[in-house]
């Protein structure tokens, strides 16, 4: 398959404004950020502080509040644990796994850690079950100073005062069948390239930061998640999504160089989770449970292994 089969654009030519306008016109609201995300955050206000760290103006589709959940008794003497979800709006368990963690487990860390949870970085894309923002840009390649993506810039501004104090950052993602059926073909078409088919791993895996791999940390997360859902095996060539497997269910990226959310802080312990919601062996609830388990395991490991 090449980008000749994608319905937008001219093969071999990157999209211009007209193609991006055509793409956006084809994106329709499929679910409600207000009802499914904001309402759940509002229900936590009696136990946690909720900050609106920005607002997206996505005219003509409306405006979206950008919300973060904080520990109520924030103590600068304690380490900070950052959790981000919904960087890609279509990755549903990233959003709802983060909310489930706060609702069921965050209180366990009172007096031991500060928690900052951003459940839905990309609300416009959440409603449209899409990877990109309204400008056909991927937020998870734009966590860089001066970048063009408002969703990413808002998170960078939120965490800027915390640089040097974040111990853990867990960024919650999914790898889905639609990566191959829609999003990677769209990316190839947008950039004027041929689409090269890839594989979708069946199971949970982690992407470590090659600059801070912390293999024991990654393995501790996978051990806890394995109690909830299965860990993805490597492809026959020893890779997952084309990257070498460095330990069972673990690959590495240079997160900062790629502009990934996981590279947004100087935290010692960093990982990106990847859940596979389309597996016949996993339910939506298992996916949420896996995300919450990963966050708990990450924080528990860091608290036990840092001075």
Automatic annotation (TrEMBL):
<comment type="similarity">
    <text>Belongs to the peptidase M14 family.</text>
</comment>
<dbReference type="InterPro" id="IPR000834">
    <property type="entry name" value="Peptidase_M14"/>
</dbReference>
<dbReference type="GO" id="GO:0006508">
    <property type="term" value="P:proteolysis"/>
</dbReference>
<dbReference type="GO" id="GO:0008270">
    <property type="term" value="F:zinc ion binding"/>
</dbReference>
<dbReference type="InterPro" id="IPR055438">
    <property type="entry name" value="AstE_AspA_cat"/>
</dbReference>
<feature type="active site" description="Proton donor/acceptor">
    <location>
        <position position="274"/>
    </location>
</feature>
<keyword id="KW-0645">Protease</keyword>
<keyword id="KW-0862">Zinc</keyword>
<dbReference type="Pfam" id="PF24827">
    <property type="entry name" value="AstE_AspA_cat"/>
</dbReference>
<feature type="domain" description="Peptidase M14">
    <location>
        <begin position="29"/>
        <end position="302"/>
    </location>
</feature>
<keyword id="KW-0479">Metal-binding</keyword>
<keyword id="KW-0378">Hydrolase</keyword>
<dbReference type="GO" id="GO:0004181">
    <property type="term" value="F:metallocarboxypeptidase activity"/>
</dbReference>
<keyword id="KW-0121">Carboxypeptidase</keyword>
<protein>
    <submittedName>
        <fullName>M14 family metallocarboxypeptidase</fullName>
    </submittedName>
</protein>
């Amino acid at each position: 398959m090449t980008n000749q089969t994608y319905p937008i654009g001219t093969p071999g030519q990157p999209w211009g404004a007209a193609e991006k306008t055509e793409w956006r016109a084809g994106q329709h609201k499929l679910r409600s950020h207000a009802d499914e995300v904001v309402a759940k955050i509002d229900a936590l206000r009696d136990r946690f502080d909720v900050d609106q760290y920005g607002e997206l103006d996505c005219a003509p589709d409306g405006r979206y509040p950008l919300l973060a959940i904080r520990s109520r008794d924030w103590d600068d003497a304690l380490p900070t644990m950052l959790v981000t979800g919904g960087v890609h709006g279509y990755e549903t368990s990233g959003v709802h796994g983060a909310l489930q963690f706060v609702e069921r487990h965050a209180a366990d860390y009172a007096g031991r850690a500060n928690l900052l949870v951003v459940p839905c970085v990309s609300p416009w894309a959440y409603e449209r079950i899409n990877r990109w923002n309204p400008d056909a840009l991927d937020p998870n390649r734009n966590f860089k100073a001066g970048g063009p993506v408002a969703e990413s810039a808002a998170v960078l501004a939120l965490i800027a005062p915390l640089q040097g104090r974040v111990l853990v950052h867990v960024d919650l993602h999914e790898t889905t069948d639609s990566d191959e059926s829609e999003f990677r073909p769209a990316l190839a078409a947008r950039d004027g390239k041929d689409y090269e088919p890839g594989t979708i791993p069946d199971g949970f895996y982690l992407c470590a930061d090659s600059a801070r791999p912390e293999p024991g940390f990654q393995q501790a997360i996978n051990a806890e998640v394995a109690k909830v859902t299965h860990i993805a095996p490597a492809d026959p060539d020893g890779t997952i999504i084309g990257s070498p497997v460095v330990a069972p269910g673990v690959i590495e990226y240079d997160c900062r160089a790629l502009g990934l959310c996981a590279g947004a802080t100087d935290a010692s312990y960093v990982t990106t989770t990847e859940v596979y919601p389309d597996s016949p062996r996993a339910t939506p609830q298992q996916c949420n449970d896996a995300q919450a388990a990963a966050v708990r395991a990450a924080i528990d490991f860091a608290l036990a292994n840092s001075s």
